[in-house]
Each structure stands twice: as C-alpha cells, then as structure tokens.
C-alpha cells in the first residue's frame, strides 16, 4: 500500500512538472545546401494567369514622379527614374594549382565578356553604364578628328564630359575544373558568379540589389560526350582538346553567357519596374512611365491599389512601353469586389483613381519572351 | 441661372500644328486655355504653357472669334471691355507672354504633359520700360567723385599727416575713375577687352593701373576741395575731398597701360610640335613673338599611355629670363584620349589648344601673368658694372633705388663686376639712359657705352 502511495505521488509530481514545461517553438527546418546548377525564372505571360496568381510581387516602389526633374544631370535622388551610374568590372580570379587542363583555363581572357555584360545590362535600363571600352572610344575620336577636324572634336569633347560613376558593379567569378576517368576521361568545368555593387570611395558593398550566387556547369552548355577525350600512355590522344585555350574558352564563354542571362533575369525580379496607373478604359490601362523607367516589351505587370500602406491587387496586364509612358491590356481581373467595381466603371468610360487612392503597376520579373528575343 | 450660364461660358476650339488646344472664356474665370506637350518635366510643362499662351494670343487676335464673343450675351460688359483692351494691346505689340497668368498643376496624359493657363478678368500685361544710364557719362569732360584719404606724418620726407592724407585721397579719386572707365569699357567693348576686364580680373587690373598712374595724379585731378577732416590715432588724419578728375587723360593713360599688359612681347621655348602651334596661337591672340624678349613662355607636353591609348599632359609657364615665374597653366588631360600612334601627340595638342575652355583658361593665365609682371613693377634685369667705374660701390644700391620706376634692387659683387638685379617697368633703353645719369655721383670715370646682350642683361665692361 505504501508502495502504491509512493508511486502515485511520484507520478503526480512528474505530471505536474511536465505540465509546467511548454513545447519548444519549431521555427526552422533543416534544408539541403544545393550545389546544383542555377536556372532562370521568368514571368508567366499575363494571359496565362489565374485570379489566384494575382498577388503583388516584392520590391514594388510607389514613389511618384513629382520629385523628378527629368534632366539626367540634375535628377533628384528621390526620383524613381534616377538610375545609379555605374562602371562594370569582370573580376576574373586566378585559377590556382596544376593539373590536367588547368593551364588552358588560366589563359581565359574576360575582356570581351565584360563588354557583353555592359551591353546586356544597358538594355534593361536599371543602371546608367559607363563603358570601359577605351579602344573603341578613342578610335572613334580619331576618326571623328580625321573627318570633322580638330576644332569640331575639341568643341564636342569640351561640351560633354564622361559621366561620374556612383557605384561599381563587379562580377566575381570562380572557375574550377576537374577531370574524371583514366583512359577515356571527360572534363567538368564549373563557373560560379556573384555580383557586388560597391562604392569605391567608401568601400561599402551595397546590400541591394542582391543577385545571390549563380552556378553554371559545363554540362548545362555542352553534352558530356563533347568534353570526352582519350589518353594513351598518359598522353592526350584524341577527343576534347582540354589543353587548348581556344577550345576551353569556347566552353567557358558559353557558360558565362548563360550565367549573365540568369543574372539578368534575377536583376529584373530584384529591381522590378513600377509605374502609376493614370486611367483605365475598358481593359486598357495607361501608365505614367515607360522605357524611361525600364518597362520592357510584353511586360507582365500586376495592377494594384495602394492605400494607407495596404495593397489590393486588381488584375494582371500585358504592358508595352513607349518612351515616357506605357499602355497595357488587363488580361485577367482579380476576383474581388474592388476589381469588379473598377472593371464596371472602366467599361463605361475612363476610370481615373480618385484623390485618396492610387493605382500602380509592378512588373513580375523578366518578361515571358525576354530570353528568346534578347539573349 | 444667369451665373450658371456665365460660368459655362463659351467654348472655342483652335487647331494648331495638329495639337488640339481649347480656349474658353467666361466672366467668372477669365480666359482659360489648355495645351499639351510631348515629354515630361519642366521643359514639357514650359512648352505646354507657351503653347497655351500662344493659343490665347491667337484667340485674341482673331477678329472672327472675338466678334463671336462680343455678340454673345453670356459675357458681361466688364469682361468685354477687358478683352477689347487686351486685343488692342496685343495689336500694339505687347506680348501676352508677359502677363501674369495662373498655371494649373501639370497632368500626365500618355506621353504628353498638359497644363491649363488662366488669365483672370481685369489683368493686363505690364508695359516694359527701358531705362538707360551709367556712371560714365560719355559727353561730360570731367567726373566728380567724393573720396576719403588717410595719412600719417612721414618724417623722412618731411611730409605732414594732412599732406599724406590728401595724396592718398587723390590717388583714390583717380583709382575710382579708372574703375568707372573699366566698367564702361567692359559694357561697351565686352568682346574686345574680354578677359582683362572680366569681373574677377577687373579689381587687380584697376589696382595695377592706379598704381602706375599715382605719380601723375596731380595732372589728372583738375581741382579738388576739402569737405571734411578728422584726426586718427597715432597723429593720423582722415580727409574727405571732392575731386574733379579729367576723363580724357585717365582714359588715355589707362588704355596705354592696358595695351602694354595685353600684348607684351614674348619668346616661346617649347619642343616641336608644341612650339609652332603655340606661336600660331599667340599670333591669333595678338601677342607679339620675339626671340630676344625678356618674357618667356615655356611649354612642355607629355604623352601618358594606357593600354593602346594616349592622353596628353600639357604645361605652360610664364617666366622672365632671371627665372621669376609669373604664371603657370596646365591642361585637363581627361579631355580625350586617342589611339597611340606617331601622330597622336600632335593631334592631341591640336585638339587641346582648339578647345574653348582650355583656350580661355590658357589666355586667362597668360593675361594674369602679364598683369603680374606689371603689378610687380616690371621684369627683373641684371646690370653688370665693372668695379673700375665705381668709386663708391657701397652707395650703388641706394642710388639705383631712387631711380623712377625701379624696384627690388639687389647688389652683388661678382669678381671684377658688381651685379645689380632690379625690376623696371619701362623699356631697356630708358633704363640705360637713366643709369648713365644717376651713377655719375659715385662713378670713378664716366660709364662706357652699355652692352645690351638681350632685354635682360645690361653690361658696362
């Protein structure tokens, strides 16, 4: 009996103790660190949206145009159209060590890739880019002088001066190579790209835009069989010329080009273009900025009402820009009372947002056809 | 009901250049016009505003439109009178653009920016009046100035404080008139006298000229009268005088000095191709070139190569033969780069010297250097006198210092010679003549004929 009593008391104490103890909050989970190749993600066409898909993406910016002077030289910092002026660098790291194919990889020249990067970045209109192509610039001046004369050149050069960069955009690359196999082997190249926006005078690395890390593997751009080679008596016999810089460059160029494409798509998601809706007529929306704010052709834009810090999606539109403005067609209206109300009043004439509320459009990311038509 | 009718007003549409602008008129709101212009920002707003105003002007000058307005009964008589007045003024050539108008805040419509301008009933354009005048009255012979002078007793020359103060006041009177003359020159001949009389430079030029004119101030001031005087600490006196300064001699003298500053003779010392280009340029600027000149323009060019491109570094200094530097100019190498080639240097020099900004800054530096030469009392010259000609060499320095126009005398003994370095503002011949005269009291025998090696060295061997 005594034993039963003891046991009961122990059980009660244990029970009361366990009642005091609360469950530990479970907020994190284990995730695998991936070393798979990166892929690009682009916006779906507005016409393929469902009502449930219409949500406001990250990084929308609802600043107005009233702060803009529209003069690139004196543009105010608060103007949404002001783009940072940057110079681009392709920081190729040295490939260390020795081994099969390392020498050829080391000889890689990334100057032309830098120019390609400049051209591609200029096209998306997120930055003002100062080219580092000195040769073309001075050659053009030489030809200008020969054809127009020293005086005309002096006048031209005196009237305009080179832009001053606000930041430096730097691409860091990490190139590695490994070979597998013995008699029949294959090369396996990996390229890792990271970008940094930095202020060279304060040495501050900017946290935005953050494009993360992009990993490209040789198998993304070449069939594995193309990189196969045969060794006889420990000497190259036939197959992929891993020791020949030109052949290696061809592979690395393709990989870098793919990396830059992915980079562009990330940049467009990271820095979406935003515009204010001036009016809606039927399904047509009129936006207050176009190419000047980096709106691209066939842009998929989510239309939303912004009031007191809250957003209410209205629909999704397929937008095409002109220089200072853009027009779009609302492909799908959101299934909501607000959207219905606006749709009804737009059906009978031009709907203009009243004073208290503002309607904006923000791009979802890279336009659907961008990779086919621009890269 | 009537009010409603009035505020509705009359609507007239004008089509101009494909852009539709609307002009409306009502008694309550006046004339309103709306116009749009392509683009964004201030330029687009301004162009839309101007467009709207020109629509208003067109509306006012169209008799048909006006007659239509006059005949309607919606507009009251007060507004009609105002419109008629506006129309009359416009026909007299008064621009509607000068009118105070209300401009609405801009509205964006697609690629266009639109504004509405409103002319309130009763507002009329301001008539612009021309007013002319200035300090330098070209017709008058004399200029009347009131100036203040200060002075302290100068025992060594036996001058009282009052006499010193009066001399000071007279100098200031002349200086003031020189200032007026320069201002007038600047406004009248701004193209010919440009950089010497530009705002920043004018003060120093005025000072230089006044300094040169001070010995002649008696001749330039026709008459003067004392207005007031008061004592200053340390036995000083302050006088206020009213002086009548003759314009013609001041203008003449100032002009002479300005000419001397503006176009001295210079020697160019630079490697080719810079030298010939620089001489060419100097000839364009009206500056005389002479191999024996005391003032030297030294120039040097340097190519800075980076990769396969070159930039140019150019420096020009103005010195006299003794090595005194009066000014230095450097180009802006960042202006442009050209592909490296045997001709790159010549091409770059040509372009750099053809750039307006660089030309102006080089010209400014040269002019400032020439001013500097005058301001410092002329260029440095070396005089060598053999010791056998001097009985009291220790007095040479003080004797030379008393010469008119001579400054900064330094005497050295160099073997059998005495070397005197001094600044003199006039011509070398004048200096030699003055030397013959003044050295006589300390001479052991009369000085021989001077040898003038160049403008810089005078020798009595």
Q: Could you characterize what this model shows?
A:
The complex is a heterodimer of chains A (375) and B (461). Chain A has 375 residues and is an alpha+beta fold. Chain A is built from 9 helices and 15 strands. In chain A, a hairpin with a 4-residue loop joins β12 and β13. In chain A, α3 packs parallel to α7 and α4 packs across α5. Chain B is of the alpha+beta class. Helix content of chain B is 38%, strand content 30%. In chain B, the strands form 4 sheets. In chain B, strands 1, 2, 3, 4, 5 and 6 form a 6-stranded antiparallel sheet that branches. In chain B, a hairpin with a 2-residue loop joins β17 and β18. In chain B, α5 crosses α6. Chain B is flat and about 110 Å long. The N terminus of chain B is likely disordered. Chains A and B meet through α4 and α5 of A and α2, β15, α10 and α11 of B.
In short:
Chain A is α+β, with helices and mostly antiparallel strands and 375 residues long. In chain A, 29% of the residues lie in helices and 29% in strands.
Keywords for this structure?
heterodimer, A: 375 residues, B: 461 residues, alpha+beta, six-stranded mixed β-sheet, 38% helix, disordered N terminus
Break the fold down into its secondary structure elements and pairings.
The complex is a heterodimer of chains A (375) and B (461).
Chain A (H helix, E strand, L loop, with lengths): L1 H19 L64 E8 L9 H5 L4 H13 L4 E3 L3 H15 L1 H10 L7 E15 L2 E16 L4 E2 L7 E5 H4 L6 E5 L2 E5 L5 H26 L3 E8 L2 E4 L11 E9 L2 E12 L4 E8 L3 H11 L2 E2 L6 E6 L6 H5 L1
Helix pairs in contact in A: 3-7, 4-5
Chain B lengths: L1 H7 L1 E7 L2 E8 L3 E9 L2 H21 L1 H9 L5 H15 L10 E2 L3 E3 L2 E8 L22 E10 L9 H28 L10 H15 L3 H4 E12 L3 E11 H16 L2 E5 L4 H11 L3 E2 L5 E12 L2 E12 L4 E6 L7 E2 L4 H11 L1 H20 L3 E8 L9 H6 L4 E9 L2 E8 L3 H12 L11 E2 L4 E4 L1
Parallel strand pairs in B: 10-11, 10-12, 16-20
Antiparallel strand pairs in B: 1-2, 2-3, 3-6, 4-6, 5-6, 7-9, 8-9, 12-13, 13-14, 13-15, 16-18, 17-18, 19-20
Helix pairs in contact in B: 5-6, 5-8, 6-8, 6-11, 9-10
């Amino acid at each position: 009996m005594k034993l039963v009593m003891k046991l009961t008391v122990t059980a009660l104490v244990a029970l009361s103790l366990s009642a005091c103890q609360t469950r530990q909050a479970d907020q994190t989970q284990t995730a695998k660190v991936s070393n798979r190749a990166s892929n690009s993600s682009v916006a779906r066409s507005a016409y393929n949206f469902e009502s449930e898909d219409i949500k406001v993406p990250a990084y929308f910016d609802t600043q107005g145009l009233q702060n803009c002077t529209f003069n690139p030289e004196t543009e105010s910092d608060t103007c949404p159209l002001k783009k940072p002026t940057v110079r681009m660098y392709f920081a190729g790291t040295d490939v260390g060590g020795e081994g099969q194919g390392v020498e050829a990889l080391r000889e890689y020249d990334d100057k032309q890739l830098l120019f390609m990067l400049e051209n591609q970045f200029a096209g998306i209109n997120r930055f003002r880019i100062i080219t580092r192509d000195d040769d073309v610039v001075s050659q053009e001046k030489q030809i200008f002088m020969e054809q127009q004369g020293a005086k005309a050149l002096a006048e031209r050069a005196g009237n305009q001066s080179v832009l001053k960069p606000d930041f430096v955009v730097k691409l860091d690359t990490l190139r590695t190579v490994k070979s597998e196999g013995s008699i029949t082997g294959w090369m396996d190249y990996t390229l890792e790209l990271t970008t940094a926006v930095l202020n060279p005078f304060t040495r501050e690395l900017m946290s935005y835009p953050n494009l993360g890390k992009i990993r490209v593997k040789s198998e993304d751009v070449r069939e594995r069989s193309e990189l196969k080679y045969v060794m006889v008596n420990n000497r190259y016999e036939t197959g992929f010329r891993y020791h020949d810089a030109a052949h290696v460059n061809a592979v690395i160029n393709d990989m870098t080009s793919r990396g830059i494409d992915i980079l562009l798509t990330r940049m467009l998601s990271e820095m979406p273009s935003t515009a204010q809706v001036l009016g809606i007529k039927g399904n047509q929306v009129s936006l207050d900025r176009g190419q000047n704010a980096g709106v691209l052709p066939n842009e998929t834009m989510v239309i939303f009402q912004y009031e007191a810090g809250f957003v209410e999606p209205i629909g999704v539109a397929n937008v095409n820009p002109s220089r200072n403005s853009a027009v779009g067609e609302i492909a799908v209206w959101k299934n909501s009372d607000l959207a219905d109300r606006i749709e009804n009043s737009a059906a009978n004439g031009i709907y203009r947002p009243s004073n208290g509320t503002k309607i904006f459009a923000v791009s979802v990311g890279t336009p659907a056809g961008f990779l086919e038509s621009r890269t | 009901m009537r009010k409603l009718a009035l505020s509705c007003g009359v609507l007239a549409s004008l089509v101009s250049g494909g852009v539709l602008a609307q002009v409306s008129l009502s008694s309550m709101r006046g004339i309103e016009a709306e116009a749009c212009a392509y683009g964004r920002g201030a330029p687009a707003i301004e162009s839309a505003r101007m467009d709207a105003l020109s629509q208003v002007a067109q509306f006012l000058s169209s008799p048909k439109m006006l007659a239509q307005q006059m005949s309607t009964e919606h507009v009251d008589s007060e507004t009609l009178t105002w419109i008629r007045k506006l129309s009359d003024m416009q026909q007299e050539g008064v621009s509607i653009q000068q009118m105070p108008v209300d401009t609405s805040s801009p509205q964006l419509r697609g690629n266009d920016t639109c504004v509405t301008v409103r002319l309130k009933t009763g507002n009329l354009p301001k008539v612009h009046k021309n007013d002319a005048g200035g300090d330098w009255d070209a017709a008058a012979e004399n200029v009347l100035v009131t100036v203040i002078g200060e002075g302290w007793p100068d025992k060594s020359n036996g001058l009282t404080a009052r006499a010193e103060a009066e001399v000071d006041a007279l100098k200031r009177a002349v200086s003031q008139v020189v200032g007026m003359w320069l201002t007038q020159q600047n406004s009248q001949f701004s193209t010919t006298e440009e950089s010497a009389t530009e705002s920043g430079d004018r003060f120093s030029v005025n000072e230089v000229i006044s300094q040169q004119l001070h010995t002649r101030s008696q001749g330039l001031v026709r008459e003067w009268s004392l207005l007031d005087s008061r004592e200053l600490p340390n036995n000083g006196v302050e006088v206020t005088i009213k002086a009548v300064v003759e314009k013609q001699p001041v203008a003449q003298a100032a002009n002479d000095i300005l000419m001397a500053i503006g176009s001295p003779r210079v020697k160019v010392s630079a490697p080719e191709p810079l030298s010939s280009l620089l001489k060419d340029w100097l000839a364009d600027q009206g500056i005389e070139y002479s191999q024996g000149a005391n003032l030297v323009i030294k120039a040097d060019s340097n190519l800075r190569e980076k990769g396969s491109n070159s930039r140019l570094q150019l420096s020009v200094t103005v010195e006299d033969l003794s090595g005194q530097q009066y000014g230095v100019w450097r180009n802006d190498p960042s202006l442009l780069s050209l592909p490296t080639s045997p001709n790159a240097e010549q091409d770059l020099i040509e372009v750099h010297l053809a750039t307006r900004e660089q030309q102006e800054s080089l010209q400014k530096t040269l002019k400032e250097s020439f001013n500097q030469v005058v301001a410092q009392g002329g260029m440095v010259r070396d005089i060598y006198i053999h010791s056998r000609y001097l009985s009291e060499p220790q007095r040479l320095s003080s004797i030379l210092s008393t010469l008119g126009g001579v400054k900064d005398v330094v005497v050295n003994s160099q073997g059998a010679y005495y070397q005197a370095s001094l600044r003199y503002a006039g011509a070398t011949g004048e200096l030699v003549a003055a030397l013959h005269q003044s050295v006589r009291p300390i001479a052991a025998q009369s000085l021989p004929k001077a040898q003038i090696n160049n403008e810089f060295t005078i020798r009595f061997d």
